[in-house]
Specification:
The protein is mainly beta. It has strands at residues 7-10, 18-22, 28-29, 32-34, 40-41, 50-51, 55-57, 65-66, 78-81, 87-88, 100-103, 111-112, 124-127, 133-134, 146-149, 157-158, 170-173, 179-180, 193-196, 203-204. Strands 5-8-10-12-14-16-18-20 form an 8-stranded parallel β-sheet, with no helix packed on it. A two-stranded antiparallel sheet has the order 1-2. Strands 3-6 form a two-stranded parallel sheet. The chain is globular and about 45 Å long. The chain starts with 6 loop residues before the first strand and ends with a strand.
């Protein structure tokens, strides 16, 4: 099967960058290179495709957001995100068979949406200090045994069921967290320690 064509749609005649990518559903894309001028990957852009060669972000990326279900049901084993990224919307990488997810040390990421990385094969995750919100079920149904937060984590909200149905052994709640959702650690039979790093207890749903 030939590689699918990837179309770019210019956001405005006055701008010198493109902000939407689109590839036809159910087509084989061997390798997707995201050019440095791409600011947004639109919802459902690569939904239900078969990416054999991975995703490559070209040098000096300006990508800021990845839309809803943009890579959902895409056979994608690993991905690293550029530091420019601010938002990953809901279900963006659900059902992808992902094993490895990497954020840059100087990441600007603020939000991971509901079920963004649900139903994958991730075994551990290191979340950037810039992150403020984890949506509902963001990492539910994985194989995660460890979640690492930067010591200066700005995380304020962890949505319900974010780490449900995983293999957590312990979990440290960052000091700036103000809200914890329901069933946050449901079905983690090996979980034996939850540590609070602040004397101010967060609100629990």
């Amino acid at each position: 099967m030939n590689a699918a064509y990837c179309y770019s749609i210019k956001s405005s005649p006055q701008l010198d960058y493109y902000d939407i990518l689109f590839a036809p559903e159910n087509r084989l894309v061997y390798r997707q290179e995201v050019s440095h001028y791409i600011k947004r990957i639109a919802s459902y852009s690569f939904y239900n495709n078969d990416l054999k060669g991975g995703i490559y972000f070209r040098p000096n990326p300006t990508l800021e957001s990845i839309g809803c279900c943009s890579f959902s049901r895409y056979k994608l084993r690993s991905i690293w995100f550029p530091s420019s990224l601010i938002v990953i919307e809901k279900e963006a990488f659900r059902y992808c068979e992902l094993c490895d997810v990497e954020f840059q040390y100087d990441s600007k990421l603020k939000e991971i949406g509901d079920f963004a990385f649900a139903n994958n094969k991730i075994s551990s995750i290191s979340l950037p200090s810039s992150l403020v919100k984890l949506g509902y079920g963001s990492f539910v149904y994985n194989n995660i045994d460890r979640v690492y937060f930067n010591g200066n984590s700005n995380l304020e909200e962890i949505g319900g069921d974010s780490f449900g149905v995983n293999s957590l052994i312990d979990f440290t709640i960052p000091s700036k967290v103000k809200f914890l959702g329901e069933k946050l650690f449901s079905d983690n039979s090996n979980l034996n320690c939850i540590e609070l790093t602040s004397t101010n207890l967060p609100e629990v749903e």
